[in-house]
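Q: I'm writing up a methods section and want to include an example of the input and output format. Could you take the sequence below and give the corresponding predicted structure tokens, formatted cleanly so I can copy it straight into the document?
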Amino acid sequence: MSRWARGEAEIEQMLSDGQLQRVAGAGADGGPWLAKATATIATAGSIATPDPGSAYTLAYDAARFACVGLLAQQGLRPTTKGGHYAVQVAVTRQFGAAFDPYAVMRRRRNELEYPEFPDETVEQEEATQAIASASAMIDAADKLLEHLGLF
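A: Here is the clean output for your methods example:
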């Protein structure tokens, strides 16, 4: 059985291109990333009403932490060359639709961080949806984590 039964070719290409790199030891433990994701999503939820823009950004960060945790558990991590997009590609290619919302959240987070218009805002409903999406990804990652590991 291959190490990455689904998405193996993409992961190998990303390693070859320097978008991902291998890690070992403590760097290959996804548990702390999931714990960080859980704490971050709780913070996002606590500020969604007074500050939906920050809540959205935190929800995105929480989703990213969960995804990075899955990669870490496999002995992988994104490089500065691959960045957040490499996380998106690696996770969606391997683990499928449960992580599809990450792409939309990543693009929206970029709009917020690097706005075309200085008055870019996030409505509370958008923040609430981002929190729900990130929470679902964290739950999915938590279920997957125990089944992953270095082979």
